[in-house]
Design goal:
The protein is an alpha/beta fold. 37% of the residues lie in helices and 14% in strands. Helix 1 packs across helix 3, helix 6 packs across helix 7 (202-210) and helix 11 runs parallel beside helix 13.
């Protein structure tokens, strides 16, 4: 009779422990091929366990092929190709300490969104309310383009804040703009020729390329992408309201030229990435391309990752009416990638004015931080060799340095002193596309004391 000490099972379920013991005996040859096992009731009585425990253990062994059954005769050991020593339970080594990242005195490459000022109390209350009011509805799948409540809230927000008139069914919600870029390539076609700003946001270019689409770099002037560079381009990806990383704002005349270009041929489209339009510090927000598009050629994109928190992966795009049916036919089978609870919470956050209040508070905070960073530069040893540019919008400024050192050489020297620099030239795809000696300074996360120390060191290096 099979005998196992069921007291040694630790945290394993009884049937799981019994299954492992019998399997180990089969692999070790202690139970020979063709050998008949005890009946379920006999083994259960012997081990002082429930019959269902033995039944479940036998069933798992049959499913994996270690046992087979003969009608009205019982369970027998299967013939294996070779007998092996029983495999011990895997022993996982203690987690190896992750290699500690270098601690920089100043890291200008650590850009992205920030979390300071996130309205935890309000967000938690709205989340609890969604859980209470919606209950089991939160467990059901939302429509592929996002919850109707969130799309209605986004449509109202766009009309109030960006002057865009869009129906909720034109809005597609997704987990981050990277996901939406993938959808757009599939919608518009991998065989199309895409154009992107140079220097510019590299992720979009990489995603288009990984999808098999050709993406050409387009040089820029002080007004954005040059219309004369658009020969052969069919889909144009731009950020006309505050281009990253140059900070250029495309004026109305250039915008009209780009819209005329899109209208000249069927199936030309402009992807308008409006990634940080909320943070403009002087004057009114710049009107979007989408708001003056009359031919349905602009696809508008934005994200809440920048304005609320990087981990809140909720982005959206607004499709022209003529792309809605192709989208449904080609991509309507996709499931929405944003959890329902987050969608309903964000919908209430928008509808009840909390988002507008949060943005207003953050504008004040970021404007103050920007002013302190600029003041620190102008009071530092760099003051006569640094010119601050593009400081009126967005969460980064440019600092043009008066130096003969090449960007890479200065970056190497700075790294030796604990400073990691970010230059415009780091974002170029074509040599010479970006102005040299120009730092990109993401200022929200900067600690002013360490920033001043870093400026002293840069002054020495120059």
């Amino acid at each position: 009779m099979l005998t196992y000490d069921m007291g040694n099972r630790g945290t394993l379920a009884r049937y799981d422990y019994l299954y492992r013991c019998i399997k180990a005996d089969i692999l070790a040859g202690r139970l020979a091929a063709g050998e008949k096992l005890p009946s379920k009731r006999a083994l259960a009585d012997h081990l002082e366990v429930a019959v269902v425990t033995v039944e479940n253990a036998y069933a798992q062994l049959v499913a994996e092929g270690y046992l087979y059954t003969r009608e009205k005769r019982g369970y027998f050991v299967s013939t294996l190709e070779e007998k092996t020593n029983p495999a011990p339970l895997p022993e996982f080594p203690a987690p190896r300490a992750e290699r500690e990242e270098k601690k920089w005195l100043l890291d200008l490459r650590a850009g992205g969104g920030v979390t300071e000022g996130f309205p935890f109390t309000v967000w938690a209350r709205l989340t609890r309310r969604a859980l209470t009011e919606r209950g089991e509805a939160l467990l059901r799948a939302t429509p592929h383009s996002g919850a109707a409540e969130l799309r209605r809230a986004i449509a109202a927000h766009l009309y109030r804040f960006r002057g865009i008139q869009a129906a909720p069914d034109q809005i597609v919600v997704g987990a981050g703009t990277e996901y939406l870029y993938n959808l757009l390539v599939q919608l518009l076609g991998r065989d199309r020729i895409y154009g992107a700003e140079d220097p510019g946001y590299s992720k979009a270019v990489q995603i288009y390329g990984l999808n098999g689409a050709e993406c050409r770099p387009l040089s820029m002037d002080e007004q954005g992408v040059k219309p004369e560079e658009l020969g052969g381009i069919q889909v144009l990806h731009i950020s006309p309201n505050h281009q990253f990383p140059t900070g250029v704002v495309t004026p109305i005349a250039r915008r009209q030229s780009l819209l005329r270009w899109a209208e000249q041929e069927e199936n030309r489209y402009i992807i308008e990435d409006d990634y940080d339009s909320e943070f403009r510090f002087t004057g009114r927000p710049i009107p979007t391309l989408k708001s003056i598009d009359r031919a349905g050629r602009v696809i508008y994109m934005n994200t809440f990752s920048r304005s609320l928190a990087p981990s809140l992966r909720i982005s959206y795009m607004v499709l022209p009416q003529n792309l809605l049916e192709p989208y449904r036919q080609k991509l309507g089978f996709y499931s929405c990638t944003v959890p329902a609870i987050e969608q309903y919470t964000l919908a209430s956050f928008l509808d009840e004015g909390y988002f507008d209040s949060h943005i207003n508070r953050m504008r004040v905070r970021y404007r103050s931080q920007r002013d302190k960073v600029i003041a620190a530069i102008r009071e530092s040893p760099l003051r006569d060799r640094a010119q601050v540019q593009r400081e009126n919008a967005g969460l980064h400024v440019l600092v043009r340095l008066d130096t003969a050192l090449e960007d890479r050489a200065l970056a190497r020297l700075a790294e030796e002193r604990g400073i990691r620099l970010s230059f415009l030239s780091d974002f170029q795809r074509t040599e010479g596309a970006a102005a040299p000696h120009t730092l990109v300074v993401h200022y929200p996360r900067i600690d002013l004391d360490t920033f001043r120390k870093a400026l002293d060191i840069l002054g020495e290096l120059l």
